[in-house]
Amino acid sequence: MTTVFTRRRQVLGLLLAAPAVTRAQLRTAEELENNPRWLQQREALFGARAIVEDEALISLQAPARAEDAAVVPIAVRAGLVQGQQGRFIRRLVLIIDNNPSPLAAQIEFGPASGRADLETRVRIDEYGFVRAIAEFSDGRLAMSKRFVKASGGCSAPPGKDAEAARATLGRMRLAVQEDAPAGQPLRAQLMVSHPNDSGLVMDQATRLYTKAQYVRRIELAYAGQPVLKAEVDFSLSENPHLRFWLKPEPRGGELVARVDDTEGRHFEQRLQLAA
């Protein structure tokens, strides 16, 4: 995963040099699908491997027009329970074609993951596609995409003032569904208090850009087994949150969330689940 993100940063330097007018001129379906930002990400992450678009395998839900470009809710639904028919989703990639940093998240699922479904909130900087690409255990790739009308999300001012954000920075909350049917995957949620500054917001008082500082890595484990590991970027919204699923343990166990940001800060939260 680290190698992929190193390559992504090399690609990002080229992408940021692309004229904005070129991106704005993308109009037709063919032009949108051949967006150079997407094509460069595709090659860096998947090479020449075939990617099928099959909503029965993976489905992305996103609003056609966002109410707030800085907080756009998206949901990824997998077509199978992890391990069903001997198959599972090994990796999930979220790409926002026209963001300054298109690779929003790359998630690896572990043995304690009940489903590869995921919900979060993202920033969208320009009209374009949001894509979810799933890599299955047999090596196949499937994609679902949605065109979202939103702009300015990566340079929008934060929802709370800087002092208030610093006061709560790093606080986390874990919650798990309590009424799930016996033996079925449990829905869980992680919320992290973090400004997730993109570095693209201008301070109106100083006329300087705020420093980029954002959550970089999220790890979740249950009963000693990995649920998921995610490499993320500032394309996730302020105060990142994830809804995910975990496989129940008859004896219960501890759910642990570990979060690292670009400033080298480490945050941790634990929740004991009963049998």
UniProtKB/TrEMBL annotation:
Residues 179-270 form the Sulphur oxidation protein SoxZ domain. It holds the Pfam family SoxY. This is Quinoprotein dehydrogenase-associated SoxYZ-like carrier. Residues 43-154 form the Ig-like SoxY domain. The lineage of its organism: Bacteria, Pseudomonadati, Pseudomonadota, Betaproteobacteria, Burkholderiales. InterPro entries: Fuse-rel_SoxYZ, Ig-like_fold, Ig_E-set, SoxY, SoxY_sf, SoxZ_dom.
